[in-house]
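Every protein is a chain of amino acids, and every chain bends into a shape of its own. Below is the pair of lines this work produces for a single protein:
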Amino acid sequence: MLFFDCLSFWQRNQATQQTVTASNESVPASSAAVERVFSHGGIIVQPHRSRMSDKMLSHVVFLKCNCD
């Protein structure tokens, strides 16, 4: 019974299913970009910058990663 309910749901919402599938296909296959951002954060946060606020760190990392 549950199988048929799921099947009828996806048949009724076929356009939504295609949109969800298309948006999931655009996800990058690698986490290299995220690791690069964390690496920059680790380089920026040093003991002499320990009082930097999280908002300031976010801005500095953003600028560092998007300076090109």
